[in-house]
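Researcher: Re-running this chain for the archive, since the previous output was lost when a drive failed. Same request as before.
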Amino acid sequence: MNIAVIGTGMVGRLIAVELSRKHQVYAIDNNSENLNLLNKYNPKIITNKIDIIKEDFLTDLNADLIVNCVPGFMGFDTSKKILKENTCVDISFMPEDCYDLEDYAIKANTALYPDAGVAPGLSNIIVGNLISNYDIDEIKIMVGGLPKEKNPPWNYKAPFSPIDVIEEYTRPARIKEDGQIKTVSALTGKIDFEVEEIGKLEAFLTDGLRTLLDSKLTSDIPTLLEYTIRYPGHSSMVSELIDSGKLDNSTISHDGKIVNQKEFTTKKLFKEWKLAETDKEFTLLIITAKTMDSKEISCVVYDEWRDGWSSMSRTTGLTACAIANLVLEKGLKNAGVIPPEQLGSNQDYFDYIINYLEEKKIIINFSNEKNPLLIK
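Model: Regenerated structure tokens:
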């Protein structure tokens, strides 16, 4: 099969390399350095330098499926272009409502598989499976990628596009409580906890529920919450930046030039947060659920840096690869928007994705007791 990967940053690069094991991969990016790295991994990957904002990247692209790996602010428009002719697996984490592409995809007889990463993505797939097997009353999702060695003051390295990290912190978080969808500020609702062999952590609300909020599968669940995990103190430092206006879209004067305040601050943070390919880090995803009869169920997903790939690249990218391979190998003929929880509600599809990830040595543990990794 022919697969195109649009955007070959840290995660897109892994996706291109992994999919090239089974398929002919075409990689498109406007960054020559990213494309050159791909050729070192697999010279059979066909690369093409294109600015997809200014140029038509679909001309003569004979792809059976396209994976959209561009930053979030470009995600919606890029997927819309793709859906005109192709089915799309999307990891862009677009701020727009992906369901606005539903009618567009149906008319084109193509499908969008949005939020095909780790969280949202794998988290939704697991939640979809839990809902199909239990009568759920409450779901909490906590996820984060962190360096194994703390690096003060932030104690953080960005394992994916840093601009999307900032978006997580500034985008209002949508949650569901008492059966009502509410909007709260990101970084609020902080939880302090500990995990064996990792130590103290904090988690705060972010806007990661996405399609779970509008899904028919979750319509009867009163409580849905999603948190981002960091080392203690990180959220308060980010809150100080927000409160001081350092992440506003106002303009400032710097070196005789007028620049955007948010972009200026972000560039400085990128230098401190840049994750080197040799930096050891880990990704932790914890999903806890309560049933209507007060039974507690949990799932813990854990992965570490391996073979030159960050854990966040692995957990995000390999989930997207699993979905892409599922679509092609099972010959899925869906049209419209297919959220990841819908895939998880199908036991055959769920088993395929989980088995794929476990074969790649990602640890996935389910328990019918309160999460044994958490220390009160």
